[in-house]
Amino acid sequence: MLEGSHNIVLDTCCIFNLINGKTLNEVLLLPLNFYVGQIVYSECTTQPCYELDDLLKSGKIKLLADVPVELFAKFNTKYQLGDGETECLVIGKIHNYVIGSDDKKARSCIIDELGESSLTGSIGLLKELKMKAIMACDKIFDSFTEMQKSGGFLPRISQDYFCESSDKK
């Protein structure tokens, strides 16, 4: 699914969902480079995702520099997203990074601006865990269910979405 993509910038919604699903550390085992922008970082430090500091210190996630104000303002006016989502869109545009977003409006804007191959989210990253044999599909589905129970606005999908029928036990 993310073949050829090695750099993922995460937005706040995606980080929250992965933390709530207790799978952020597993996702960071994927053979990818993960980043957050300054705005997303500030959103995460003012809300309950304090483990982000430890992940930054360990180098599992890297903190990027501020984005150019002109491009941020252009995308902010054009798409009217939240600041964190706009920042991710700018980073994706400048660095050709895939954006990990679970925000419905932001996902649509990312596709419009950068194309579908520049988009993933917590569900896509969970599928990668299965494809790379990092987690069993039943545990992945449990994580997804936990994300929904914790308030994540995610689509209704069945365990079959993550698992082949031979994997269910």
Descriptive account of the structure:
The structure is a single chain. By secondary structure, the chain is α/β, with parallel strands linked by helices. The chain contains nine helices and five strands; from the N terminus they run βααβααβααβαβαα. It has helices at 12-20, 24-27, 38-45, 51-58, 69-79, 83-95, 104-114, 122-131, 137-149; strands spanning 7-10, 33-36, 61-63, 98-100, 119-120. A five-stranded parallel beta sheet has the order 3-2-1-4-5. Helix 7 (104-114) links the parallel strand 4 (98-100) and strand 5. Helix 3 runs antiparallel to helix 6 (83-95) and helix 6 (83-95) runs parallel beside helix 7 (104-114). The longest helix has 13 residues, at 83-95. 40% of the residues are buried. Mean pLDDT is 92; it is low at 165-169.
Structural class: alpha/beta
Radius of gyration: 15 Å
Strand order of the largest sheet: 3-2-1-4-5
Q: Tell me the total number of β-strands.
A: 5
> What is the number of helical segments per DSSP (H or I, 4+ residues)?
9
Distance from N terminus to C terminus (CA atoms, Å) equals 25 Å
Q: What ranges have pLDDT less than 50 throughout 5 or more consecutive residues?
A: 165-169
